[in-house]
Design goal:
transmembrane; globular; membrane; 191 residues; transmembrane helix; 0% strand; mainly alpha
Length: 191
């Protein structure tokens, strides 16, 4: 079971980074535009790899968390978090910030809630891990990169995209680490 859950998490991370690399290859200006990953959701040539980069991990994390939920100390909590993370991933993609002021606000709120939920889930997973040192370090990296993103969200130029990528690296690694700790390797076959 661990292999299936961790495999989905790793696949989700791979889809995120391949999609982002495609976006950067097509429109490298996004690296310095300081509009974060969302920069790529407003251009015709990058909207498809952008959508794949956001929705792919959303799906694979949703699948992994739903599969892992029965082994968590609070299965309903994990399933609900999986659902909300997926919902906010979809909202981020469906609301390109440049369309109008309403879309900009919805997009910004959805992205904020997505990151906050990822932090909250990371904190909960740290508690369930019994204070595992690796998990604590990854949560700290997630928090520091989240603060980095908050600093760069307003200026016209900066490193918002890089902060968001660092946040997602830490979150993805934290999920992989904690799933390996509490999801069993195999499940006994019953007939």
């Amino acid at each position: 079971m661990t292999r299936k859950v961790v495999g989905n998490l790793i696949l989700g991370q791979a889809v995120l980074y391949v999609g982002l690399l495609m976006c950067v290859a097509l429109k490298p200006d996004g690296l310095g535009a300081n509009d974060g990953i969302s920069y790529y959701g407003i251009f015709r040539q990058t909207v498809v790899p952008y959508a794949i980069a956001i929705l792919g991990p959303g799906y694979f994390i949703w699948t992994a968390l739903r599969s892992a939920a029965p082994f968590a100390p609070a299965p309903v909590y994990v399933r609900r978090m999986a659902n909300w993370l997926a919902v906010f991933s979809v909202l981020v993609v469906l609301t390109p910030y440049s369309a109008n002021l309403v879309f900009d606000w919805v997009h910004t709120l959805a992205g904020t809630f997505l990151f906050v939920l990822q932090l909250v889930l990371g904190l909960r997973l740290l508690g369930w891990s019994g204070g595992d040192g690796w998990t604590a370090g990854l949560l700290l990296a997630q928090f520091v990169s989240g603060v980095f993103c908050a600093v760069y969200v307003l200026p016209k130029h900066g490193f918002l995209l890089q902060g968001q990528v660092a946040f997602q690296v830490a979150f993805g690694a934290l999920l992989v680490r904690t799933m390996r700790l509490f999801v069993p390797q195999t499940i006994a076959q019953t007939t």
